[in-house]
Amino acid sequence: MAKNEMNEYQQLxxxxxxxxxxxxxxxxxxxxxxxxQLHYLQMVTEKISKAYLxxxxxxxxxxxxxxxxxxxxxxxxxxxxxxxxxxxxxxxFKKYDQFQRCMFKLTPLLRELEQLxxxxxxxGPNPEYPWPHQKPKxxxxxxxxxxxxxxxxxxxxxxxxxxxxxxxxxxxxFA
Amino acid sequence: xxTTIFNPKNWAAWYARExxxxxxxxxxxHYLPLHSPEREIRLIEVNDLIVEMRNDALEPLDFFVDxxxxxxxxxxxxxxxxxxxxxxxxxxxxxxxxxxxxKVDSWPKTK
Lengths: 175, 111
Fold this sequence. Notes:
- Chain A has 175 residues and is mainly α.
- Helix content of chain A is 62%, strand content 0%.
- Chain A has helices at residues 8-29, 34-53, 67-77, 81-90, 96-114, 118-121, 146-153, 155-169.
- The chains are: A mainly alpha (175), B alpha+beta (111).
């Protein structure tokens, strides 16, 4: 496979990612309830990660894949200085170690975001259904998600949104 | 790093170093060489920032690395919480088929 040439599976996943991403942007612009914005952001980060892992041409073995897995895979692949610099520059950094430090800072927030996924949320806060399942006490539409505040009011949150924007928009350059 | 002879232990050490640079939640990383195919690297990463999946499901994630080159290999990563790691060591949670804790190598190194 030529460098950065997506295979057919990645193409399919990327098409879906771009569609989900467009919806996320619409939800943001229209200032919809945070649960919906979080839901789509979580889906976008999970799907872009899967789209990237499909570069092997094989089904990822694990059902749940998060953005941290995408970071991990991206950095594992970057063995040469030239490739590392290229990847870092795509994401807006002059040096690879700056890129790594940024990922280090973003990882805790990403872990919180991925815990909203159905496979990990269990009977706790999630952006889709009231919980707990047996005797619901909370509704996503009215629940205050701490991760939402962090996304909207912190430098890490802004940085994370920018990262996602780049990962989706420039996917073909590193897929 | 040498690209003429594939040395899985060196690769495992490299991954352990690189992963800790991007994930502050990683407490320890364990390399499981026993019974693993020549071009397969199995890591267990004990992480403070993750949550357990339902039913204690242990699902490693596979990364196919450097496909088509001399260094082609598969990296399997099993992310576990500290509590799960304790249960694994006590044999209360089963590892994926063929995975063994014998001859495990770990980072950070303890004295």
